């Protein structure tokens, strides 16, 4: 798709008339008086969380935002492979793939050894290693990501819309309230012209602060961002420009001899480009605002760095200057470390409210959305009485560790860029090497949750060496047995709050009496200890809490769907229709053997338990019934 | 995507609340008094045409429909690969791919040799041969295809919406009118409750009848459908059912010993299935309505054919009985054969108004949309004064020949099914063989326009043996030079009325002085005879009429974008921004070499000229400047 040729216009580029692209959104009237969850802030974290909760018609959510309308321009734009996988689960990856710029290769530039006033290309690498994800690394205006979430939210069972023009004043927690009570009272001030100053109160069981680096929610629970604050000032601009710089449509990292670094991020639509420009080292405590830097200053600096190439900026769609260090909150909820055993969290923070860092690694928006994806299903499961409330402690435990890694990575990466710049770009090879080595990290696939009630030990990891416990389930292409459709195994996972068990069959005939798959299905369908039996409410579809999928070793034409265990052909819904989408085979014709690709033990087979946020929770033997039962017994509540 | 589990609900399945899926559409108020094109009928042909014309803000189109709102249920559902290619050009292939059932394999069933009262599987074939198209054969409710067009229309430059509840009364042509006059007067009767009986008149330069088998437009130009009328009655149902028939999620052709044939077409959402059931041979002149066949009769017949398998229908989403022969109109416009040289067409017919046949080959909707795709760009080019009005004669010439082939195919296929049924299914092997041999036909890729002013002779076909002149441009995977994006070469073609020249380079360095590509660019950019110069209006982007794309033989990392001819880096729009999307390289890493895949002569290279409806118009040598010029001079008008 090509657009923005005659100037940047916000909104859906498929709508020809720019004036029609800006439809007002948002709920009208007063906020509800009482909700299960109040989300403060309509950024990537808030919208990810709201969209997840909106999947459940029995959860009452309210999301508020201080701004008067949806975001239209600027801010983040990098979307890691892992985030695309999440977007697929949310149902809008296709739109993002269509509209976004795809980061296919990254190039590196440094001063010419013989004429250091000129830059020369020093390297060119594939941006994402082969097979790391079924999705590419893409770039798209954050505003359009918001639109994707807003659209899904609006269409969801809970039909959610944000309340705009609400500023959070304060939160008050009733210390005497019971665990099911609406213990948190939030006061919101309206800032829209017609109601300015009007204060609304809303009672919530849980409040989540997705309200950015200056988070009021964070302050209300007495937490702070710790770490370095700004040292270097950077400029960022989204521009329409004419240049003879050859890599203007590649992500390019440019280090000049004397003028610092510049990062090119090509943007959606074929014409726009984002440019990050290193500006100046600030004094201790100094803010970049004090320098009165103009857009022309940023452009002039970019032009100096890019020499001998020219850059003629025709339009600035958005620009900003910023100084940002690496800062982190030590806990992401309102329960002090010392009280974890005795208190349940009611207030959470996510995204920039917990961690701030440089935007140049393209991580911020991604990590924020993964924060919310982690929290969302847990909140839903607790509110819906599927899981024990203490599960909510795992949010801060899991995500604070991830944020810590992010901060460390960002500090190291900023250091390398700075030292390379100091060395006049002489360290270009080191920069490129670091970039390649950390590709999995920047793709978002390196997140690795440590053993906990949710994440099993590695006792049986050898049964599935490519599906690492604690990391996201790495999808692979397969063929669906019942209709021979080529499909991605991981795309069974929608953001629907369900756990999934992928049962990888042994080499035997899975339909035979006594096969390991049949025995597993018998256990799950019949045994008193079966987590499927224990945790599925009466009257609900058999796969509504734990969704069993089977993967066979044979070619799909060698197996007869009608001979398979009944649990793999479940009867669902009010008519008892058969769900035919539970069984898969390797795509042998195209050379994609999921057993080989993911290191599954062909003799033993295995079960891979996957959390609702797509992380591998357990790898177990196919007959590991006790282990399976005890895993779910660790945090689930028996269905009423 | 899974949906319809608890009953069929029309509209967008991504909207959770069925009540919200049915938003009223349609223009309000009176129809305009004067338009360039009046389209009668909102079926697949009418909507394809309207959506094409809506791409041009300088064309005034009105589309009217007798029904009171958009289609919600039933009718056609088969979408051939070729149609998916067209949907990509229209901009909504992604949505269809996501929502539709994919036809991956087709199975064949016949009576058991030893127990003929039972059916047994006799064969199983891949539905579409490898590499035939980058798109699969899919199945989706016609109503959802309509929604795709309606959505694109609404967002298009002309922002078109249909006028519903309008019945065409008659057309009158002013015989004295000049070629640019609004010579046709249409009288429309409103049939909506508030305005029933009110007659509107609308004057149009062109009228297109997409008003179905009983077309009023066709009658107004004195044309008739000729051919066999009904002989066999069939029933068709979209059902939610429980069955132990193992191939219920495959397209399956079932021939029973005594009860005739049945065709299973699995449908979108994972649960619904369409079943065609052979009912009875009718007497001469008899209509199926006279038999008073009920839905229960159709189900009972299906149950008999499927024995020993059971079929328990839980809900009927839609059903119908029909009798249909193969019928064809001898010309698709209002100009008699004998007056072609002296008269220009003003009234056209498309789709079922021209040809009716059995639905079981899944061709009807597809051929109708291709009719309209063929006509749309021609009407636009004539109205916009880009092409000579006599070009409009080519619509009937090209599409009537295609319809003739369709009718012949359908008659033959119906005959094979009938004779196989008569033979008690003994001819199952012959049926399967015929199905496989005609796979390209049913995929919609066999359409082959004969030499004409629009379609060149085969003189240089040897330069591109896999891009057959007169057939649709067969896409292939490539890498875009400027950003290394993996892309499909054919996806450069949007439904924007532009001609495209794909210049396949010689093995030489394309950037070198005197290279064939550079010489071609020099010709196109500079020469007085250049069709790009001659037919591009002053002030318009250089690629706005004829869009040049270059395909090189080298790996994309071996070429430097900045060394390429300026015409391949055109400056566009009000800022003169550079369009970087004109150059492509083979995807050698993944083994996709477009030169090998499409039989391009590596030493000579070639130019492939592609029409706005994606058909290969010409294959010419890279230096075939005179041939190129004379091709366009044959039907284009010099730009003012």
Walk me through this protein's architecture:
The structure is a homodimer of 640-residue chains. In chain A, β14 (261-266) and β15 form a beta hairpin. In chain A, the strands form six sheets. Chain A has a seven-stranded mixed beta sheet, sandwiched between helices. In chain A, strands 21-20-26-23-22-27-28 form a seven-stranded mixed beta sheet. In chain A, strands 1, 2, 8, 9, 10 and 18 form a six-stranded mixed beta sheet that branches. The first copy, chain A, has 640 residues and is an alpha+beta fold. The first copy, chain A, starts with 17 loop residues before the first helix and ends in a 7-residue tail after the last helix. The longest helix of chain A has 30 residues, at 393-422. Chains A and B meet through α4, β12, β24 and β25 of A and α4, β12, β24 and β25 of B.
What's the layout of helices and strands?
The structure is a homodimer.
Chain A: H1 18-21, E1 34-40, H2 44-53, E2 61-64, E3 78-79, H3 81-90, H4 93-99, E4 101-103, E5 105-111, E6 119-126, E7 137-139, H5 142-155, E8 166-173, E9 184-190, E10 199-209, H6 216-220, E11 226-227, E12 232-243, E13 251-255, E14 261-266, E15 272-281, H7 295-306, E16 311-323, E17 327-328, E18 347-349, E19 355-356, H8 364-383, H9 393-422, H10 428-437, H11 439-442, E20 477-480, E21 486-488, E22 499-504, H12 516-526, H13 531-535, E23 546-551, E24 571-572, E25 577-578, E26 583-586, H14 594-597, E27 606-610, E28 616-620, H15 625-633
Parallel strand pairs in A: 1-2, 1-10, 5-13, 10-18, 22-23, 23-26
Antiparallel strand pairs in A: 3-7, 4-7, 5-6, 8-9, 9-10, 11-17, 12-15, 12-16, 13-14, 14-15, 17-19, 20-21, 20-26, 22-27, 24-25, 27-28
Helix pairs in contact in A: 2-5, 2-8, 8-9, 9-10
